[in-house]
Specification:
Blueprint: E1 15-16, H1 19-25, E2 36-44, E3 47-55, H2 58-79, H3 87-92, E4 99-100, H4 103-118, H5 128-133, H6 146-153, E5 162-164, E6 167-169, H7 179-196, E7 201-206, E8 209-214, E9 222-227, E10 234-240, E11 244-249, E12 254-256, E13 262-264, E14 279-286, H8 289-313, E15 321-326, E16 331-334, E17 341-343, E18 352-355
Parallel strand pairs: 16-18
Antiparallel strand pairs: 1-9, 2-3, 3-7, 4-6, 5-6, 7-8, 8-11, 9-10, 10-17, 11-14, 12-13, 14-15, 15-16
Helix pairs in contact: 2-7, 4-8, 7-8
The structure holds adenosine-5'-diphosphate and magnesium ion.
Amino acid sequence: MCCRRMAGKSFRGFLLVLPVMLSVLSACAPIRGRTEAYSQSFFAMDTYMTFTVYDDNAEEARAALRQAQGELEALEALWSVTEQDSDIYAVNHSGGQTVTVDDQTAGLLSFALQMARKTGGALEPTLYPVLTAWGFTTDENRIPSADELSALLEKTGYDRVVTAGNRVTLPDGMMLDLGAVGKGYAGDLAGQCLKEQGIDSALLDIGGNIQAVGTKPDGSDWKLGLRSPFGEGIFGTLRISDQAVVTSGNYERYFIGEDGVRYGHIVDPETGYPVDNGLTSVTVVADEGKLCDALSTALFVMGPEGAVEYWKTHQEGQPFDMILVTEDREVYVTEQIKDRFNLQKEYRDMPVYPIALSDEQE
Ligand code: ADP
Ligand code: MG
């Protein structure tokens, strides 16, 4: 069994923004005036979070950080699958009865269901029974039999969740788990919370999901390191401002079965088996973290061709960009961000292909 974990808790960061690295990368652009960085790290939603705000008022910065952390913790209390006081726990143990949930839970659930529909069920918010059978929810990994999986798949299906405003009805035996979207959704709310308190430059690292508020204090882009699926460190960098960047991959949370096969934690809702389609990571860049989070998981399920097709056909309304990395070390980057992406020196052997809307441009 192998699963790279920290002290029993998962550190799910696929994207890495080392404070050291940021200061090195920004060394040529000194921070203006007396603006300073204020950071706060904490553990929530089963992952490490670090919020950094840039401000010229220490008290304002610290108060804003406290408020944002409080917001995250309140959302965790609503969305936890295991805490008995949470909204999600109440829905999952309702025995098919209608439950009234908080506005934030209703918002997250309706977004998750909308994304499940849009992605044709690649994002499946009711996959929890299947994930539990693999041990991905408890860390006691095992390989379920094909019969067990097909019986459990009967208990899934986002189209069987009924919502009306804040009222949610889930058939008895089904379970919701909004973990694949919750951190992105929470990041949007935390960013909003900081903005409301006058912060216009901040970087939120939510277990590897990155949420940028504005630009760096000097007005330039943030430079993020993209964690390598092939070893330690980063394989590339990406420049962004006021956007979110979320990665899903199979190289951090997985186990090796007794059959010697590597099983990743993202599961194909059609088959009940961990995804194995040639992709090793999908990074999504968009204005909203919730869209990035939902899509990074769903596009990972769709595979390289499916992800490119989805990107080509979903650029209206909520456009997004993406970076796909395949098991055989190829990188595919959508054309709008290709100039913002750079490979690290030690990964220059990886070919980088643009993904364009029309084939002629490819
Ligand atoms: P992470 O939360 O680990 O950073 P993701 O956002 O990609 O990464 O979410 C993956 C988590 O979502 C898994 O650990 C599992 O709990 C759950 N999950 C796995 N496959 C799916 C799926 N197809 N649809 C929805 N949730 C999934
Ligand atoms: Mg996700």
